Amino acid sequence: MITTILLSFGALFLAELGDKSQLMALTFALRYRWWVVLSAITVASILVNLIAVGVGHFLGAALPTELIAFFAAATLIAVGLWTLRELLPGNAPEDDAETVAPQTKSRSAFLVVLSAFLLAELGDRTMFATMALATKNGWIAVWIGSVAGMVAAGGLAILIGVTVGKHIPERAIALCSGLLFLYFGAVTLLGALAPELGTLGNIALGAVLPAAAGAVLMLLRRKNSARIGEQPDADEAVTVEERTA
């Protein structure tokens, strides 16, 4: 049993390195408290791997991965758009070098991270790896090792995110987080709609959505800056009134 746990741990940990799930963990760590992100990742890992070992050991059938991918893509894109909404004129946080990642309400943050990870991991390559291990090994040992490996990879990404987030302004964090989530969502959606493009094609085309969103956001902010520049300064307006009085 110990051998199976170690095997599952190593397989899942290595599979998660550089995967979109680990990048999501890093991005979430820039936005929310680290313990909220880690708790949500742990719960999502427990649920996803329980489903994986159940399917692999007892059923030997595959899940409707395309439908799950659609929901995952929609969730990631929604989170990205919601994050970028903070940067719209009138909603943007102050660009202060001392400002660190915002600490939103723990309950809402936990639900956001949990739902995003749960959908992103369902049908992912790591889930299939767990299913494959469960077909030939004890499912309990595979489940324990897989959960531990996934949480360890997520914890490593959170550590990096927390360390980096201390030195990044809030506006930059919001911008990078929003664009990354749009990118993950676009890549996930392309993988479900156009698998014939291959990994490189999905990676290349997936950059179109965040690039377009970034361009629109920049245009709106420039228009807002121009509009503000055209308005007379409040002190100047008072001076004019005093002169005409």
Number of domains: 1
Spatial gap, N to C terminus? 89 Å
Unreliable stretches covering 5 or more consecutive residues: 93-104, 234-241
Q: How much beta, percentage-wise?
A: under 5%
Describe the structure.
With 245 residues, this protein is mainly α. The chain has one domain. The protein contains eleven helices and no strands. The protein has helices at residues 2-16, 20-31, 34-59, 65-85, 106-121, 125-136, 139-165, 170-193, 198-206, 208-230, 234-244. Helix 2 (20-31) runs antiparallel to helix 5 (106-121), helix 3 packs parallel to helix 5 (106-121) and helix 4 (65-85) runs antiparallel to helix 5 (106-121). The longest helix has 27 residues, at 139-165. It is elongated and about 70 Å long. The N and C termini lie far apart (89 Å).
List keywords for this structure.
245 residues; mainly alpha; elongated
